[in-house]
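Reply to dn_fold:

You asked what the input looked like. This is it:
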Amino acid sequence: MKKKIWIPLLVVVFLAIFFLPIPSGVCEDGGTRAYTALTYKVVDWNRLCGYETYEETEVVFFPDNFKSLDQLWAEKNPEISADESFLATVLQVNKFSLLVEPFEGEKERQSSSQISFGTENLNTADVRVGDVVQVSYEGGIMESFPAQIRATAWKVVTDPRTRAYEGVWLEKSEEMNWNQELFNHVKITRIYADCFFARPAIPAPYEIKLNGVLSEEWCVGDQIFCEYKNTYCDVELGRAEADIISVGPSDWAPEPGVAYKPVIYLYPEEETEVSVNLTLDGALTCTYPFYGEGWRVTASPDGTLTDEAGQTYNYLYWEGETYAQYDFSQGFCVKGEDTAAFLESALEKLGLTRREANEFIVYWLPLMEQNPYNVISFQTDRYVDAAKLEVSPAPHTVIRVFMAWQRSDSFLSLPEQELSAPQRVGFTLVEWGGTEVK
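and this is what came back:
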């Protein structure tokens, strides 16, 4: 009698083991779920596919039931699941994600100028704001801002010199033809097989595309002296393009006492005509847009500035030589390699938004991160006294961040500076700049 009872139980256990599916996997790409038995697998697909979501329930039998969801997807949609890749500049580094700007010429840039992706399940790398990365992803690009992708891999690259530049940097016209050199000392930002990009070593709000093959002796980050011809420049976009004649080493360095790239953002509560006048204890060396007797712009709440000619700008730019004596009685001594992380934290405490902080870091980091140490002190009264602003109508909130810094070969101990900022209320003016002190 007992035998007859056990036989049905054994049959039930056998059938359960071989035929009862149990949950075995969930994908984060939309919620795909899998239920696996020893003889088959049920897959409830819910996966990003192009610009849509692929939804279907599918039964997969032995031996394919032991394949992973990614393997099944690759076999099911070999063209869709094949990884795409693009080159981009890092705009923001978060704990579990990156925000990047695709290069001009990459098809992903047609979807969005900013793309975000998670890095929690990917191999990590030492990445900083301003680095060039190659990102591989599968599926489509989610239409949002910033756009989002499902990245499968990413890595820091020094330059994309193995491929030709496919984008259009400038739509050239006769009005853009300068027939002169804008600057000679530049720092290389990226290299292609048929051209390279650079920013002026002498600070100026331009990026220049130099057409021609750059020899293997030069790398991204190198500072060079170059001669070129056929110069075109779009002042509004801050872009230039020219044909290279020759390149050589450059030993240009920032001059002590020069305030480099102070930029002024204006955020009124509603569209407002604003005048800005700067009284400098010294002499202006560069302004953009042209300063003349002062700046007169129409400011929008998002920070867009429009001049009388209808040209738009993100900010008011100036640089100049001052007689200010900067105070290093308090501050910070930071390893060069830790400068990016330090600035991200400090600028947040000083009241800059992520966008403003990104622009600050991208500008100053290349001059600082290779130093053994940087001694940094954010100036308040001494800078404000040396560069007085008169703004009409008067802003309700003013945030002016000016960094004085020195290179150091060894660690220096100094009292830590306390950093704070007012709360942004009403019409807000934000300014940042800096100078190297020697």
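The first helix runs from residue 2 to 19.
Hope that clears it up.
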